[in-house]
Write a structure and sequence with these properties.
The protein is α/β, with parallel strands linked by helices. It has helices spanning 9-17, 54-70, 83-92, 102-109, 120-133, 154-160, 165-171, 190-197, 213-219, 233-237, 260-280, 283-295, 300-310, and strands at 29-30, 43-44, 46-50, 74-78, 97-101, 136-138, 148-152, 177-179, 205-207, 224-228, 240-241, 254-259. It folds into two domains: 9-145 and 251-310, Periplasmic binding protein-like II (D-Maltodextrin-Binding Protein, domain 2, 3-Layer(aba) Sandwich); 148-241, 3-Layer(aba) Sandwich (D-Maltodextrin-Binding Protein, domain 2). The protein has a five-stranded mixed β-sheet. The protein has a three-stranded antiparallel β-sheet with strand order 5-12-6. A two-stranded antiparallel sheet has the order 1-2.
Length: 315
C-alpha cells in the first residue's frame, strides 16, 4: 500500500536530468499587466499539476484559488496518476507547481532505496538536493500526512482499548489485518510493526485488493485495515485511525513542489503564500475534504472554494 510508483528506467533518468522546466521564450508573462496583480512582478503563468486522485485535485484547486485571489495567473492541469508523468510535465514546462508527498517523492527519486523515515525533517532534508538537481524547489511540508495507516472500527477500539499502534501491539495480537499483498514486505506495514512495535501480524494477515480493504473492514471480515491516512471513509464510517506513537510510518507530508524559475520570478510573496496554505493543512482536514469528494461525490473545485473561504484565502 504505497504511493511509490516504479521508476521507468532510462526514460525517467533522462527526464530527471533535464533541470529546465520549459523554455523561457514559451512562457506567458503575468504580473503588472493584470489589474488584479498590479503588485506582482512579471513572471511565467503558473500551471499546477494534479494527479488523477481526489486529494491531489482538491489540493491543486486550493493552490489555484489562493493564487488567483492574490493576483497571480494560475490554472490547473490534470495529469495521470504516475509520478513520472508529473515529473515529466515539470521537465517539459507543462506544469511548474504541484502538491506532492515527501516520503513518496524521495523513494521514487532514489529508486526505493529506503531513505524515507517517519521523521519529516530528516526525510525532507534527503529529498531537497534531489529536487534541486531537477531545477525544482520543495517548500515547507505541511502537518497533513497521507501515508499508510492502520484503522479499526469504533467498536473494536472501545472493546479492546486500542487507539495507538502500541495499544494494538499490547491488546490486538490476535486481530486479523487486511491490506494489499505488499504489506508482507513493505517496511511500513508488517515488517515495521514487528521491528518497531514487536507485533507480528504475519500469521493473521489477509491480502486484499486495495479497493476491498475498507469494504472488508466494514463487513467484519478483517479487524484492522490498512488504508491511506486521509481516506474519506475513515470519517464517513466513524473508524479510528490508530496513532503511530513510535514514528514507524513514512513521513508522507503534503508539500508544494515549485519550478526554480517561478520561485526566482515571484520570490517570497509566492513562497510565503504557499507556506501559509501548508500551515493550514491537517490530516483530519484532508480526511474531511476527501470524504466530500469520494463519498459525497462533490466537485474538487467546490470543496477547495469552501476550504479557501474557511481559512481566509478567498477574495
Amino acid at each position: 500500500m504505497t504511493r511509490h510508483i516504479k521508476v521507468l528506467g532510462a526514460v525517467l533518468a533522462l527526464s530527471l536530468l533535464g533541470a529546465a522546466c520549459g523554455d523561457d521564450d514559451d512562457q506567458t508573462e503575468t504580473g503588472s499587466g493584470d489589474p488584479s496583480g498590479a503588485d506582482i512582478p512579471d513572471g511565467p503563468d503558473i500551471t499546477i499539476g494534479a494527479q488523477d486522485f481526489g486529494e491531489s485535485l482538491i489540493l491543486a484547486e486550493i493552490y489555484e484559488g489562493a493564487l488567483d485571489s492574490a493576483g497571480y495567473e494560475a490554472d490547473t492541469q490534470e495529469l495521470g496518476g504516475f509520478r513520472d508523468l508529473l515529473l515529466g510535465a515539470f521537465e517539459s514546462g507543462e506544469v511548474n507547481l504541484a502538491p506532492d508527498y515527501v516520503a513518496s517523492n524521495l523513494e521514487f527519486l532514489n529508486d526505493q532505496a529506503g531513505e524515507a523515515t517517519g521523521d519529516v525533517d530528516e526525510t525532507f532534508a534527503a529529498l531537497e538536493p534531489r529536487l534541486e538537481e531537477m531545477g525544482l524547489v520543495g517548500l515547507t511540508p505541511s502537518d497533513a500526512v497521507n501515508t499508510n495507516a492502520f484503522v479499526v472500527t469504533e467498536e473494536t477500539s472501545d472493546d479492546l482499548g486500542i487507539t495507538t499502534l502500541s495499544d494494538l501491539a499490547e491488546n490486538g495480537a490476535d486481530l486479523t489485518l487486511g491490506g494489499p499483498a505488499d504489506c508482507e514486505s513493505n517496511p511500513f506495514c508488517i515488517p515495521g510493526l514487528q521491528s518497531v512495535y514487536g507485533l507480528d501480524m504475519s500469521e493473521n494477515f489477509t491480502p486484499l485488493d486495495a479497493g476491498l480493504v475498507a469494504t472488508s473492514l466494514e463487513e467484519g471480515a478483517i479487524d484492522v485495515g490498512l488504508l491511506f491516512s486521509t481516506d474519506g471513509r475513515i470519517a464517513s464510517e466513524g473508524w479510528v485511525l490508530l496513532e503511530d506513537d513510535q514514528g514507524m510510518l513514512a513521513a508522507d507530508n503534503v508539500f508544494p513542489v515549485v519550478a526554480e524559475e517561478v520561485v526566482e520570478a515571484y520570490g517570497d510573496d509566492l513562497t510565503g503564500l504557499l507556506d501559509e496554505i501548508s500551515a493550514e493543512l491537517t490530516t483530519d482536514g484532508l480526511i474531511e475534504l476527501n470524504k466530500r469528494y469520494d463519498v459525497d461525490k462533490e466537485d474538487a473545485e467546490d470543496i477547495a472554494a469552501d476550504w479557501l473561504a474557511d481559512h481566509g484565502f478567498a477574495d
